[in-house]
Structure to design on (538 residues):
């Protein structure tokens, strides 16, 4: 089942109007997906780098002192910068690209942050504490956080290697020697469309009957779905500061409501967790920045593709707010016209170094040529064994007790079907093929740009009301007036702000121009009606 495409589950959608209005080709195009699919990856990866040099406060090492002087000078430069310039470009020979420097505070000792926007952050501790044993420090002087975008686009091994290039270049520049590299925090995750009704599966009474673990209790959070139902937002076991922290939550809802990582929609589509119809509805809700808009997205889909004129017009009236409808009635109408959207749940184990340091890793491959990074490669090669341990010994879900059918002792019961499927998921390094990455980049930029454009238009309208009071001007006038009100100080601040924002984005991810998005603006200009002077010509 894992590798094959399964046609749409007709039992779930055959009674919807749009399914019966479409022909077989249209239904296959919009509603195909891989049923009961799991997709595994490492979603966050921190690793630590220990140098051989003495980084304690009273160190006499000249290389360490040179390292500190460089970043102290950068800190002073940052302090002298205009408030809009929130980062300073940092580059040394051997680095593929420049990084952004900003003062920072992380885990007490790490106060230097070098950022590769959207991909990874490198934290340095110019001074580390003495250990209680021999005076030397056991604290790693460098910690690298690889962000989820890089891990999902390139896979964890390639992401590690590309980020480590920068660490090695900085070490070489200052003459620092790497002693070892080790994992610091790893988040193992499983995205899945397996559950059609997660609110029932994870209901408190059902979840308690299935869970087998050593955690004291679980934190369960729900939200209203209409007036008589609820949905599971998330449940969590343990604490983030502990050795292991487990979360199970609606990942698709998180992406929609937090308004970031829309590239997950493409990843899920590529891997069959959602279909094109699901993606259409998720995009609508994402642009509205509202999970409750998912049902409106379903009505929008019918308004665009439905064949019954009466319902098409009704959907359009509701969407334009010409007709008011209760949330329950809205849901009922959406269910009648269109299928339910496939939900994507995430099961996530956050595992800290204080737990993984006890692992006796099996040398499946000879990684001796990786030198100081051997531990990282051995750790990743052992991913299957680690995940098997986490999903069986740390936390698992078993069949609920049925008298006369299974053991009354939960720890001896068989795994439930959901958990069996999760543990059977292939643990290969998930990544987007190089030829598809540009599609993901363009898609992400388009969605994010639409969100920002909507926000800008709303801000211009609000500004017009503040300046001119309640008025009946059209929105285009509000936008033009907002631009015309800019004075020299505003333009100076805007220039500085743009300089800041440019540094916060990854240049390689934004190399091309979205031609369709700028086609109209290239024909616009602002003219002073009194003098005829051209104020701005795009």
């Amino acid at each position: 089942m894992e590798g094959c495409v399964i046609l749409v589950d007709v039992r779930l959608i055959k009674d919807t109007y749009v399914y019966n209005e479409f022909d077989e080709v249209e239904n296959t195009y919009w509603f195909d997906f891989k049923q009961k699919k799991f997709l595994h990856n490492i979603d966050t990866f921190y690793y630590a780098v220990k140098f051989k040099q003495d980084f304690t406060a009273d160190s006499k090492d000249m290389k360490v002192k040179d390292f500190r002087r460089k970043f102290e000078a950068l800190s002073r430069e940052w302090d002298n910068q205009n408030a809009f310039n929130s980062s300073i470009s940092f580059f040394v020979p051997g680095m593929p690209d420049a990084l952004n420097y900003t003062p920072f505070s992380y885990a007490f000792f790490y106060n230097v942050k070098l950022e590769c926007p959207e991909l990874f952050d490198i934290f340095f501790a110019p001074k580390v504490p003495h250990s209680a044993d021999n005076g030397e420090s056991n604290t790693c002087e460098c910690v690298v956080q690889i962000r989820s975008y890089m891990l999902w686009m390139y896979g964890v091994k390639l992401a590690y290697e590309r980020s480590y290039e920068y660490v090695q270049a900085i070490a070489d520049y200052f003459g620092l020697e790497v002693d070892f590299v080790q994992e610091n925090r790893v988040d193992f995750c499983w995205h899945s469309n397996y559950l059609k009704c997660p609110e029932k599966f994870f209901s408190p009474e059902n979840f308690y009957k299935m869970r087998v673990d050593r955690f004291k209790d679980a934190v369960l959070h729900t939200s209203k779905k209409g007036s008589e139902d609820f949905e599971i937002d998330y449940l969590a076991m343990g604490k983030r500061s502990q050795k292991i922290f487990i979360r199970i939550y609606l990942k698709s809802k998180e992406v929609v409501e937090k308004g970031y990582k829309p590239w997950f929609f493409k990843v899920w589509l590529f891997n069959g967790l959602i279909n094109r119809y699901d993606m259409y509805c998720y995009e609508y809700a994402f642009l509205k920045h509202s999970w409750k808009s998912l049902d409106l997205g379903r009505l929008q889909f019918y308004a665009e593709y439905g064949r019954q004129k009466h319902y098409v017009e009704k959907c359009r009236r509701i969407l334009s707010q010409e007709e008011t409808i209760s949330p329950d009635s809205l849901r009922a109408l959406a269910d009648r016209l269109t299928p339910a959207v496939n939900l994507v749940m995430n099961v996530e184990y956050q595992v800290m170094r204080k737990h993984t340091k006890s692992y006796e890793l099996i040398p499946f491959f000879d990684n001796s040529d990786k030198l100081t990074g051997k531990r990282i490669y051995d750790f990743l090669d052992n991913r299957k064994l680690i995940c098997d341990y986490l999903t069986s010994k740390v936390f698992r879900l078993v069949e609920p007790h049925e008298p006369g059918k299974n053991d009354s002792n939960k720890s001896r019961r068989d795994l439930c079907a959901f958990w069996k499927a999760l543990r059977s998921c292939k643990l290969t390094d998930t990544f987007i093929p190089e030829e598809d990455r540009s599609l993901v980049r363009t898609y992400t930029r388009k969605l994010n740009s639409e969100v920002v454009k909507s926000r800008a238009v709303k801000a211009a309208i609000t500004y017009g009301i503040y300046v001119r009071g309640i008025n009946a001007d059209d929105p285009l006038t509000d936008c033009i007036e907002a631009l015309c009100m800019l004075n020299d100080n505003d333009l100076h601040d805007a220039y500085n702000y743009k300089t800041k924002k440019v540094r916060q984005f990854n240049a390689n991810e934004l190399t091309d121009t979205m031609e369709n998005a700028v086609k109209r603006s290239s024909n616009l200009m602002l003219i002073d009606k009194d003098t005829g002077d051209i104020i701005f010509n795009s």
About this structure: Residues 434-537 form one domain. The first helix runs from residue 10 to 13. Confidence is low (pLDDT under 50) at residues 1-8. The CA atoms of residues 239 and 245 lie 6 Å apart.
